[in-house]
Amino acid sequence: MNRTALAIRMLMILKTRKFIKKAELAQMLETNPRNIIELKKELETAGYVIEVTNGPYGGYSLVDSTLFPLASLNEEERRAMLVAAPFLLTSKDPLFSDDFKQAMEKILVNEKISEPIQVATTAGWQLAMEKETLQQYLSLLSSAILSAKRVELLYKPQNKASKAYLIEPRELVQVNGLWYVLCQDSQKGLATYKINRIQEIRESDRTFRLDEDFIAKKAVTPYGHNVSRPVHCVFHIKNREYLSEYVFGENQKIDWISDDEYVLTVDLRGQHSIMQFVLQLGSDCKVIEPEELRLKVLAEVEKMFAIYSKNG
Fold it and tell me: Which residues of 239-254 are buried (b: 16+ CB within 10 A; e: fewer)?
């Protein structure tokens, strides 16, 4: 990528990111961090105002009042939008609000769609929370994250009385259909709150200092919450060939025994999730390792047998 292209790309990143470290910016541009300083000078010569924050939490930010010409979309980007549009416009995910869908329709109004792309989606269990309330909470938390404002919550932990919290929201994440807000707590370190357990919410006037070293992946992995150590599991599975199409955890390996029988080796997290995985497969899944899990499953099966074997 030549120098002009790098400068334009840097400008686009600064416009879409509120704040970014020099090292991260250099990594995104695939260039040396020393080149970022020269690119910054060129952009400032062209009339763009870039603020620099020094120190361990320092980085670059583009002044919002700066004029920014809209770059045209190339053919691949246009096609990607057209493919995703039907899903985004019909999605029931609260993240895609009515305002977002109206904005998307305005972008698409000038596009010629020769053949409408049909997208069908299905959903499992629905969250017991009004969509409008969930959208309101997500919108308020997003605003607080961007403006580094603390948030006051009335929160109800499971099987406990409601309690007031003052949080510093850092990230919003979705795990297995549930929304969570990740917070940096001065005492606990990292704290997570389920959005659907929030009873009242209000943005505070108090701000907090942004910690650029806060990384969401400390709390969340591609396979769920990183709240416990992974458990090395080995399962003997039959009649469930379709499961081989999914990745359930880290270090997954499948050894086929026959066309409809295989051994699944995988590192899973969360005792409840692991038990749920095994029990939903019934007699088609046998736990080989660990022994502790095998005994827990056996105890649960014995409880179920006792329930169904009672007279009446």
Answer: ebeebeeeebbeebee
Q: Output the average pLDDT for the chain.
A: 81
Residues 145 and 213 in one domain: yes
Cis previous bond, 33, omega within 30 = no
Q: How far apart are the first and last CA of the chain?
A: 76
pLDDT of residue 233 exceeding 80, the answer is yes
pLDDT digits over 198-207, tens only? 999 999 888 8
Answer yes or no: is 9 within a domain. yes
Tell me, yes or no, whether 171 and 198 share the same domain.
Answer: yes
Q: What is the pLDDT of residues 240-266, one digit of tens each?
A: 999 988 888 889 999 999 989 999 999
In a domain, 69, yes or no: no
Distances (CA, A) of 115 to 3, 82, 90, 201: 39, 10, 17, 44
Asked if the structure places residue 70 within a domain, the reply is no
pTM comes to 0.52
47 within domain boundaries: yes
Q: Which residue has the higher pLDDT, 130 or 303?
A: 303
> 25-39, pLDDT tens digit by residue?
888 888 888 888 888
Question: Whole domain around residue 87: which residue ranges?
Answer: 75-108
**Whether the predicted pLDDT of 186 surpasses 60:** no
